[in-house]
Amino acid sequence: MGQPPSAPEDDEVATGTLVVRASGASAARQALDAARGARSKADPERVQLLMRATLPRHLPPQGTTTTFGDCALHAQPGERQGMLLLTAATHKLSIDFSELRPLLFRQVPIDRGLQALFTTSAAHLLSVAETLDPHGAKSYLLGLADLVLRTALRSELDRADALATRRRAATEYIRDHLSDPALTAERIADALFISRRRLYQLFDDGEGVSGRIRALRVERAKELLADPALGVRAIGEISRQCGFANAAHFSRTFRKAVGQTPRDYRDQVLGGP
């Protein structure tokens, strides 16, 4: 397996989460590609699974690493909880590395059952490592890595699908109530039977709930302004249809988003003066 695995930083893995990262010559490239949302052409040599755990007390304070062929298990004690790091050769796993992208280089929440299975199994193995057959221990760790990765991936995909469904529902509710200037995050959350905190999590892309409402109102305004049948409709009336408090607020918001006033935009699209 080469050099011992690098110890994770204290804040790299939160309690109740799993971090999956690449290890080897291509690890830095994998991390950069993941940050850009791009796909790397080369798979890394190894995959590492990191999780916090309660470790056996007899472990040395500097940590210990046990290697079984293509697998290595590193335990790093801490003040309250220690850290377990399981390293496995990528080509030995039954799951293709490309399938693991939803888990890579981030803290993935996992349920307590999976956390207990991983940490207890690894801690027990460390306690009896010297008495184990190396080939059997390697197969055991590979199987443990496969089980944890597959279970975490399935849970994460289910969670992402649920978030996407909720996000679509929230967006549709906003679209259906754009003309209401009193539309707020609280009303949207109540309509979807979720907390405001949960609603904010659905729109944690930097735009936020209020930003999404504003963007959809500008989008609706552009549609109305570009409709030839509405070419004589007053700007103030269009602003009310889009839920803006008044025409001045509408004009400022529209100009900031589009780069033109509503009137100039309509003249350009409809070929007016």
UniProtKB/TrEMBL annotation:
Domain annotation HTH araC/xylS-type: ranges: 168-268
GO molecular function, one term: sequence-specific DNA binding
Pfam families linked: HTH_18 (PF12833)
SUPFAM superfamilies: Homeodomain-like (SSF46689)
Keywords for this protein: DNA-binding, Transcription, Transcription regulation
PANTHER family, alphabetized: ARAC-FAMILY TRANSCRIPTIONAL REGULATOR, TRANSCRIPTIONAL REGULATORY PROTEIN
Protein name: AraC family transcriptional regulator
Source organism: Actinokineospora bangkokensis
Organism phylogeny: Bacteria, Bacillati, Actinomycetota, Actinomycetes, Pseudonocardiales
